[in-house]
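Checklist before submission:
- one chain only
- standard amino acids only
- sequence pasted in full

Submission:
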Amino acid sequence: MNVSTNVVTHYLILGFTGTHVVEAFLAAGYKVRGTVRAVSKILVLQAMWEKKYGAGMFEVAIVEDFTKDGAFDDAMKGELLIIQG
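Returned file contents:
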């Protein structure tokens, strides 16, 4: 996928190791959506990524109960690639 086309591309990242994957995608110019159970779990990383890569490059989708059927349905809308780490 060519980043230089200015096509807005989101990636959904799950799991602990996802932070390293997020960093790599952001550094390459991609927009990233990450899931967390509570927004308080990501605030420090979100602030760091916004400062480093700009506002709007990383967004958070709250999924409070990962075990519920359809828990990720809203978080995955419009995603082209899903990575679980």
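Reviewer check: The beta strands are 10-14, 31-36, 58-62, 81-84.
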